[in-house]
Specification:
This protein is an alpha/beta fold. It has a single domain, classed as TIM Barrel (Alpha-Beta Barrel). The chain is built from 11 helices and 8 strands. An 8-stranded parallel β-barrel has the order 1-2-3-4-5-6-7-8, surrounded by 6 helices. Helix 8 (about 230-240) runs parallel beside helix 10 (about 275-285). The radius of gyration is 20 Å and the shape is globular.
């Protein structure tokens, strides 16, 4: 690309950003798919809308010697679903399906295992291809498991990766992956993580609108945003682009004094800067129907039960916001 082509391309891109931000401000920017979260119904346009349900990561459960043991423990603690890592082996896939069917504990989502080592922003097209192939396999396995989404980190911005290049590369790859997600009836959930990329709700919404598929949305992590913003703002802006929710606590003072990762060393809802009431209100406003997936430190049955009880209180607060006052 010569200098003239670069300048022309940059001008077009800039015009697109300005028009997109203007459209967002006016509420006219469109996103294909019906309003509201449809992940629990197997994808956009599903005939059934399920209530908000509680989930945790399978890896949080330390007790039990088999996949079946862990599913049974989750059920005993009142957990409705488990998030699992994929792509995985065929043998493990069979174990997960058997445990799901025996316990009726659903697969709440898929955590794509190569999110950092294999990503969609890499300058090397072959490495982006490897990442896309792995995500494709995760989408296929999610379909077999009946999972509503595959969590994807869109890429990483750092000194060696230009922000604009990361934007362009990841959007191009997601546009190609969207038909794969649709074919498998599984959403791609782009997560907000500490990757120096997609740093505001308006930017995330515009980014997803450029991908322009109701099968690509945001897997919103509430705890990840507390250090730099307010979850309820993100929820209202993302609205129908929201795929599912990750939840964990965060304490700004702890992060300031001991390093930002230390901020996660609190229990969700009752400690730190985790104010669930305005979040519950925002979820009601956008008519959210999906999973509340805890992503916190795990342990034995007592720990899992405690997490389940905390999630239960959050669900009840959402119901309270839904019920009209007398």
């Amino acid at each position: 690309m010569n200098r003239r082509e670069f300048i022309a391309g940059s001008a077009i891109a800039a015009a697109g950003v300005v028009s997109g931000v203007s459209a967002l401000a006016q509420g006219t920017l469109s996103w294909r798919g019906a309003p509201g979260n449809r992940g629990m119904a197997g994808g956009p346009g599903g005939a059934r809308r399920s209530p908000i349900r509680k989930a945790i990561s399978l890896g949080m459960i330390s007790e039990g010697s088999s996949v079946m043991d862990k599913f049974n423990l989750a059920k005993e603690c009142g957990i409705d679903g488990l998030e699992v890592n994929c792509p995985t082996t065929d043998e493990n896939l069979k174990e997960l399906i058997a445990a799901r069917d025996a316990t009726q504990v659903q697969i709440a989502g898929i955590m794509f295992g190569g999110n950092w080592s294999q990503n969609l922003t890499d300058y090397d097209p072959e490495k982006r291809k490897v990442a896309a192939e792995a995500i494709t396999r995760a989408l296929e396995q999610a379909n077999e498991l009946g999972a509503p989404h595959v969590l994807v980190v869109p890429g990483v911005v750092n000194a060696g990766m230009n922000y604009e290049d990361a934007w362009k590369n990841s959007i191009q790859e997601l546009v190609k992956l969207a038909p794969v997600a649709e074919k498998n009836r599984v959403k791609i959930g782009v997560e907000n993580v500490w990757n120096n990329f997609l740093l505001s709700p308006v930017e995330m919404a515009y980014y997803l609108d450029l991908v322009n598929s109701s099968w690509v949305g945001c897997l919103f992590d509430i705890g990840n945003i507390v250090n730099s913003g307010w979850p309820e703002h993100w929820i209202r802006t993302l609205n129908r682009r929201l795929v599912n929710l990750h939840i964990k606590g965060f304490d700004r003072k702890l992060a300031d004094s001991k390093g930002k990762w230390a901020g996660f060393g609190v229990k969700m809802q009752d400690e730190g800067d985790f104010d669930w009431k305005p979040i519950a209100k925002a979820l009601v406003e956008i008519n959210y129907r999906g999973w509340l997936i805890a992503e916190v430190g795990g342990g034995d049955k007592a720990v899992v039960q405690d997490v389940s009880d905390r999630l239960g209180k959050m669900v009840e607060l959402v119901r309270a916001e839904t019920t009209p006052s007398a």
